[in-house]
Amino acid sequence: MNILVTGAAGFIGYHLSGRLLADGHSVTGLDNINDYYDPRIKQDRLARLGVDVDLPTPAENASGNTPVTPDNLQPVTSGNFRFVRMDLTDRTGINALFEGSGFDAVVHLAAQAGVRYSLQHPHAYIDSNITGFLNILEACRHHPVSHLVYASSSSVYGANTHMPFSVHHNVDHPVSLYAATKKANELMAHTYSHLYGVPTTGLRFFTVYGPWGRPDMALFLFADAITSGKPIDVFNHGRMERDFTYIDDIIESIVRLIPKPPTENPDWKGDAPDPATSFAPYQIFNIGKNQPVALMEFIGELEKQLGVTAEKNMMDIQPGDVPRTWADVEDLFEYTGYRPKVTVREGIASFVAWYRDYFGK
Length: 361
Prior knowledge:
By secondary structure, the chain is of the alpha/beta class. It is built from twelve helices and 14 strands. It is globular and about 55 Å long.
């Protein structure tokens, strides 16, 4: 297949692009390589996919030199991988990319991530997650693809406390703007599935971790602090549980879903609507381990793998956070035959091995 992966320099996008290439597909990767976190790790991910992207060094940025922008970087091709640096808000550019590429499927992973960041930078979420997603939907409408798979988030469950979280539950009470934009993505996708027949599948990811992960995520932050002899911040005084999901389980799930676009649910009823399916070609899945792990247990496993006991700053819960997540993945298993299986012990061991190698610690 000829597949577009947006957010290809990101954590999940990098791993997915590598897997699709290994499986023999042609992949176009799109990313704006912003500085939400250190873009050098994005540069290094792309290098492993065969593409060299020159970014200004911190010293060059500090000296006022003009950084590389989407306007002055041409597409780069390596084997079956083509990389395009472009922002999702570039409506003309996105349309031109689709017009000349003939994509069979799109996996839309690019987004402004982070619950806490959304408290201080709300406009970034509207630009990327709403306007950017609209541009992808419009491109899929005018240049039809067999399947649009897009990233939603476990954050959409918000104030829900009925566990495990099911895609058949309503999710109408988000507790962060990030969550609200992801809920909006699901609604926008449904509209395009209904009006224009675009087959869409939304994926609610649950706390993804693993090698080449995002530096703003808890595991990365903990590892950085512990190996530097600094205390770690433990929110809600450690009374948190997360359905931590290893990156390989996320990728295997996506790969199995790409060739299985949704169809209309003939049993869908407007007087008892199922949020996970529709009379249109639309569906939603959770992707999680289906096994909540206490935050203190997670930290303890990391301490064991690093051989260091962390000093801990016990803090109140942050605005926008929820104390517990737990994914019901029965629908995913029934549809794909796959159930996430990597344990936290295995996953953290793999992350630590990569982290020590990458940073030389």
